[in-house]
Every structure is written in C-alpha cells, then in structure tokens.
Amino acid sequence: MIRPLLARLAQMIFVMAGISVVTFAIFFATPGADPSARIAGRNASPETLAAVRLSFGLNRPLPVQYGLLMKRLFVTQDLTSFMNRGELVVPQIFAATPVTLSLVGGAALLWVGGALLFGVLAALRPGRMLDRGLMVLGLVGISMPVYWLGAVVNLVTQSRLHETWLFSWVPPLGYVAFADDPWGWFKVLLLPSFTLSVFYIGLYSRVLRSALIEAHQEDYIRTARAKGLSERRILLVHALRMSLVSVVTLFGLDFGALVGGGALLTEVVFGLPGIGKLTYDALQTLDLPVIMATVMYASFFVVAANALVDMLYAFIDPRVRDA
Amino acid sequence: MAEAAGDIIAAPRQDGAPGLWGPMLRRLTADRGALLAAVLLLAIALACAAAPLYAVHVAQTDPFHSNINGEITIDGVQRPVIEANTEGLGLGQTPIGPTGRAQYLLGADSQGRDVAARLLYGGRASLLISAVATLLGMLLGGTLGIVAGYFGGVADAVLSRLLDVLWAFPVYLLAISMSIVAVGSGLHLGPLVIESSNPLLPALIIGLVGVPYVARPMRAQVRALRKSEFVLAAIGFGVPTPRILRVDILPNVSGTLLVLAPLLMAINMLTESALSFLSIGVQPPAASWGTIIQDGLALLYTRPLVALAPGVTIMLTVLSLNLLGEALRDALDPRLARRR
C-alpha cells in the first residue's frame, strides 16, 4: 500500500523537475535572441538589459542560471516584472489563485453532476432518441472553443436578453470575493463555471455512457440480474460504481488541461482576475517573468493534483488497493 | 534464408479474403453521419481554398487592408463602411452590418474589412496550420512511439520519461511558453530562420504539443505487437528489422494512426484558435478564425456576427473531424460499434 504511493510521489517530483527544465530551456536556451532582451520586454533600455543580465546570471553557465531561476521562483520568491517596474511576481500569483480555484471548483461540480445525469440517462436505453440526442449534444459541446462560448454567453446575458427576467440577475463582468459577498460571488461565477464545464460535460457523459454499456456485458452484472435485483439498482449501484473508475482517471488528467488552458481562456472572456488572466495580460505586454512564473506554478499545481487523484484512485479501486 | 522467411510471412492473401480496408470502407460509407461530416469538411476546405477568388471576384476587396473611409452603394444610397453612431450621445463608430449582397455579405470589422472574405482567408490559415501540425504530430509521435515500443530498453526508458513530462505539461501552458518566445524573436535554428510572422511557427509548436497524443497509444500497441508470435517468428527467422517494421508492425498500427489523425486535427484546431485568440498564434495582418473572434469581441454587442461567424465555422469543422474520427474507429472495430 505504501510502496505504490511513494513510487507515485517520486514520479511526481521527477515530472515537476522535468517541466521546470523544459520551461527553463524554452525561455533561456531557445536559439534566436538574447534572453535578456526577451525578459526585459520590448524597447528596454541598455541599463535594464544590464540589470536583467546580472539578476538572472545570464553571463554564467546554464545550470547556474537554472538554479538561480528556481531559487528566485520558489525560495526567495523575489522574481520581478520588468514591464511593471519591479513589481514582485509570485505574490501576484498567490493573490490570483482563489479566483481560479473558485472558477475551476464550480466547473468541476457542474461537470461531474451534468456528466452523471446525461451519461446515465443515455445509457438507460442505448440507441434510442434520447441517447442519440444527448450524444450529439455532447459532441457539439466538445467541438466549441470555450472562449467563443463565453462570448456567446456574454452576448445573451449581458446585452441581448439582459433586460428580461431570465438574465436580469446577471452581474457585470468581473469578480466578487467570497469573503466580501458570498451571494455575489456565487452569481458572478455561475455563468463562467457553466461555460467552462460544457466541454467536460460533453466529454464525460460520452465516456461514462460507453463505460456503463460496457459494464453491462460483464459477468458480475449477470450475477446481479440472476440475484433478481431491479434493473435500476443494477445500473446505479453495480455498473455505475465500476464505470466511475475510468472517469476518475480521466478527471485527474483533465484537471490539468482545465487549470492551464480552459480556465485561462474563460477568465479572459469573463474578466476574472485569476492566474489565467494574469498570464493573458503578461502575454499582451510580453512580460516574460510573469509568464514563466505562472506557467511553472500552474503546471506544478496540475501535476500535484494529478498525483493526488491517482493516490485517491488507489482507495476507490479494490484491484489497485490490494495489489 | 531471410528472403524466403520474409516471403512466408508476407504470404499473399487468398482471393476472396476480405482484408482490413474493404469492409472498413463499406461500413464507413454506410454511416450517414460520417458521410455528412466528410462532405461538410470538403465543402469548408474548398470554400477556404477559394478565398482569393471570392475576395477578388465576388467581394472585390482586399481583406488585409483597412478600409475605414470606404463607401458602399446599397439601393442607390451611398453609405460609409464605418458609420458614426447616431444613437445616444452619437459617440464612437459602428462598422456596417450584414448587407446581404456580394460586398460586405457579413458586414465589416472595426477596420472596415470584409468579414466574409476574412473568414475564408482565416479558414485557410486555421485549416492549414492544424493539418500541418497534425501531420507533424503523427510523424514525430508515431516514430517515437514505434521506436520506444519496438526496441524497448534504454530507448524506451528515456523516451517514456520524456513523454511523461510532456504529457503532464498542460497543453496550453506549453504552447504558450513556446509561442511567446517564438513571437518575440522568431526561431533561429542555425542557418534556418523562421520569422515570427510565419504561419509555420504555430504549426510547428502545435505539432510538438500533440506528440504524446500519438506516441503513447503507438508505444503501447507496438509493445504488444513486439511480443506477438508472428513478430517473434520473423525475428527468429532473421528477417531484418526495417523489414519487420514495414511488413509486420506498420500495417498493424495503420488503423490506429488513421483513427487518431482526425481526432488529433480536431484538438489541434481548437489549440490553434486558442493561441491565435491569445494573440500568440497567427500574427496580424494575417488572420485565422481565432484572431477574427478576438477582433470581433470589441464589437460583440453592436456587430456580434464578426465574432460569432468564425466560432460557428470552427465548431462545424471540429465537429466534423470528431464525427469522422469516431466513425473510422467504429468502422475499423465493428465489435466496438455494436457495443455503443
């Protein structure tokens, strides 16, 4: 029981180290231009360039530069932005984290609930109208760019139908902290979380449906039928439990794509000042220290979350638990 | 001896044996959804390929040149392409909306450029970039997966760890990191210089990001094949490795590759549009569907069509690719189709 957990932990640390090396190599060792010019941003003065060279140790060998960057990112946390005249980067990331977590948490709730509902409904009668309709809807859901869907949601709820009773409750774009106004926090996050969850509802209800239908051909389902259990009980208790295992694996992997991708685009469209919006603003000004830091922190978070899910997985699946 | 062994292993099929591709093609053409998807894809690709023809002969405009002071005659009335607002305080400007005729069919964007023509040109960029990226990802990922799976040992250990890292790296963050460096200064690989405005650059980046999607399933499948009896027999007979790879391995994984291609292209298309939307993909004045959506966001409440139209085209294309991939998978493995 302990050994696989330790092995997973070791793998997590290896992957984090790998990601940090890859990120470092992209920003500091891509052939093309002087890294100091990249980091300092457009039209930097010679003094700024010299300061960048000194503070990132750019005249020293690459391994030393790597060590220095890691130290400044994670130990001393004194990495500064050159576009915003010396503003510390890491505290900005910590300030933005609750926004992103609120958004992603809300989306995860919606998507697990939605996927369970649609997946089970579709699997009840495979091949019928409801099943086909839901599956086509799911396919449409995974084929839309999330930021475009966000724009459509904004168009409808902020402009075209904002005056009607249906959407008059929708607050203006932006963020309200939970501590300030819990109800306002909920209202402001509902539509962005929904937008973010659509892709995953589509994906997961399709996966869940296949897993459920597959499970129905297993021996233990036949046994359950032979025991005289009702079809509903078989589907909801026996088949669903086994099918959830495959969904949990996916969940861990997709959480990554969510924090590092979908959430970024959703935050931009809805003006939520999370980590993604921080990255986006830095992209507009080519503020590399901020981008480096957000990429590194977000990836590490994702890898840690994946490892956590894998370890939880060991508790859900008896085959893994007792192995 | 090796020659003879190769002949035995590659024994010609008996006449009348169905083979892999014949029934697959029949099942595929019987699938109405797949046919519709293929026709739609073809239509979109052809329309986008004809973008220059549309711009010159139908819309009679240069969609990459701003036309802020331009005018258009509708029902004998001269109207400016960008009109000053008359409602409210009369501040700001609004580009002309959909005209329903050849010129400015879908209206103009904030710089007075023809949205319909830009949509076609944007589709060219989006389709081209995602197709090249898919090709690149398949080639690179396929090679890595086959090498890791077939040779095992050190090669497998090194490649697998590398793929672990790439797989765990959130796709967009990896793509953003590479793109921002590339957009800033282009790419210089020795004598080879790729300017930051070159559409090959996003294709290259998206292709690299897609490698693990292909390499992982390839490695698993080739690993299993490597242990199968006919491959062990071929090795035992002393058939040279390149021949085993060509005759025994490649035909057996070609089905998987064929299914992966449209699915990977669907993912690549969404990645391309996201990067362009973040302004680190296709660089202006060139357009892709992602950049047009970004341009259109500023006009979202006044001229929503500018942002809506490219989103619809992305959705239709990605939907068709997904449908096609699924149909291919079902056609290659009818057992799976029955289960669905």
Please, could you describe this protein's structure?
The complex is a heterodimer of chains A (323) and B (340). Chain A is an all-alpha fold. Chain A has helices at residues 2-29, 35-40, 46-55, 62-75, 90-124, 129-141, 146-160, 182-215, 219-226, 231-270, 275-285, 288-316, 318-321. Chain A has two domains: 2-76, no CATH class; 96-322, MetI-like fold. The model of chain A has no long low-confidence stretch (mean pLDDT 82). Chain B is mainly alpha-helical. Helices cover 67% and strands 6% of the residues of chain B. Chain B contains 14 helices and six strands. Chain B has helices at residues 2-9, 21-30, 32-49, 51-58, 115-151, 153-168, 171-185, 200-209, 211-226, 229-237, 241-277, 289-297, 305-332, 334-339; strands at residues 71-74, 77-80, 82-84, 93-95, 187-189, 192-194. The longest helix of chain B is centred in the middle third of the chain and has 37 residues, at 115-151. Residues 1-10 of chain B have low confidence and may be disordered.
What is the topology?
The complex is a heterodimer of chains A (323) and B (340).
Chain A: H1 2-29, H2 35-40, H3 46-55, H4 62-75, H5 90-124, H6 129-141, H7 146-160, H8 182-215, H9 219-226, H10 231-270, H11 275-285, H12 288-316, H13 318-321
Helix pairs in contact in A: 1-4, 1-12, 5-6, 5-8, 5-10, 6-8, 7-8, 7-10, 8-10, 9-10, 10-11, 10-12, 11-12
Chain B: H1 2-9, H2 21-30, H3 32-49, H4 51-58, E1 71-74, E2 77-80, E3 82-84, E4 93-95, H5 115-151, H6 153-168, H7 171-185, E5 187-189, E6 192-194, H8 200-209, H9 211-226, H10 229-237, H11 241-277, H12 289-297, H13 305-332, H14 334-339
Antiparallel strand pairs in B: 1-2, 3-4, 5-6
